[in-house]
Amino acid sequence: MHFFLSFLCILFFWGCGATNLQVANLKLPQDANFYLQENLQNLEISQELSAKLKKQYLEIWFSPWKNPIPNPNVSEVFWIAPSLLKNPGFAPNLKRYSQEEMRELYDSMDMEHYPSVNIKAIITRDTSVRAVPTILPRFKSRDNYPFDRWQNSLIFEGTPVLITHYNLKKDWAHIQSSFVYGWVKVENLAKITPEDENFYFNIREYALSNKDKIPIYDENEEFLSMARIGKLFAIKDIQKKDIEIYLPYKKANGFVGFKTTKVKQEDFSFFPKNFDVLNMASVIDSMMGQFYGWGGELQSRDCSAFIRDSFANFGIFLPRNSAAQVKYANNMIDLSAYSAKEKEKMIIQKATPFATILWLKGHIMLYLGVYEGRAIVAHSAWSVMTRKMFSKTENLLGGVVITTLTPESDKNGIFVKSKTLLDKILGMSDLYQYILDLP
């Protein structure tokens, strides 16, 4: 009896145990090309399907200009508003925001006058899209880094947007793009004229970088821009070794201007790239090891941005969040009712390597195939949790990695088992099949 009571006490106090922090030991090769196999389906698609993907992608990308109607659903546009006054959260100094600070921020959005403008514009610099008009972060707790809940997304230079509103100081603009709503600093936006719009619509070819973070310079070697995986550049001219591209900038009058510069053909591909396993492996490897960035924080990628930018290379325009991404192709297989063993078996049998995305609540991964009998995935992840009798351990992955679906399982305690990624998987969607099914 005494032993039983002592055991219950141990279990009770275990819940209050400290959380240890350690870097996860990544035992698998961190090279997507390693997982290519000779018998792997090549995934090649016809030029006709590739042209359909390109047309569909650009139609969605330009939708803020082609259909310039502000979203009338205020609660959807300002989804963050209810939480501001109810749960202020923690500031960069690790102190709670005051009610006065939250009220000032809330009032600064001037929501009662939304939509106050309807202006077509373009992003002139890779920049953050914020849930509120401030660069200050908001964390749920003092140890909740890097999850700044006011960071919404990263939006690339050259992206068409619609300005629908300004804050009271007019230093932030609320925009809607083809994939995200939020606040952007006015300095990173340029308005467009009907002539600018027609100019863009008449551009037929676009380029994508083959590696992430390729600097782009002018003829005097002055820095102009940074090429990123999944970022489109409008092409002016194609030469023997170079591609001449357009780069938008903001003129003194607030409207857009265009600079031109040349980039090396060997560093870029024409949009869209041919969808095959070699090209996808190259895309993944170009981001491998990069640090995790919640909502594009510090111009890095979280799980959904990694997936979104990867497939953008091939003309597949995915939504912003993971739940919407797995439903996008309308072919999701529901795995929620299966055991972990059954899930992995189903994934190995039915998923297409380098083309199927696996989803669990709040996270998404790209299936690469099988290695030593286990399903292998590439994903951008912050950490996985393991539990032992008296403590929890946060095993840092910290960025774009290749793992099994149970990277944390070997560190669980005897009496307590944390749910693994595999346990939590709810569904999978095949984006290669989506391409083949295009009308």
From TrEMBL:
Cross-referenced InterPro entries: NLP_P60_dom, NLPC/P60_N_dom, P60_peptidase_YkfC, Papain-like_cys_pep_sf, SH3b1_dom, SH3b2-type_SH3
GO biological process: proteolysis
Sequence ranges assigned to domain NLPC/P60 N-terminal in this UniProt record: 7-114
Position of the signal peptide: 1-23
Ranges for domain NlpC/P60: 289-388
UniProt entry tagged with the keyword NAD: no
Cross-referenced Pfam families: N_NLPC_P60, NLPC_P60, SH3_6, SH3_7
Transmembrane segments: none
Ranges of residues in domain SH3b2-type SH3: 205-236
Domain SH3b1: 137-185
GO molecular function: cysteine-type peptidase activity
UniProtKB keywords: Hydrolase, Protease, Signal, Thiol protease
Protein family per UniProt: Belongs to the peptidase C40 family.
Name used for this protein in its record: Hydrolase
Organism: Helicobacter anseris
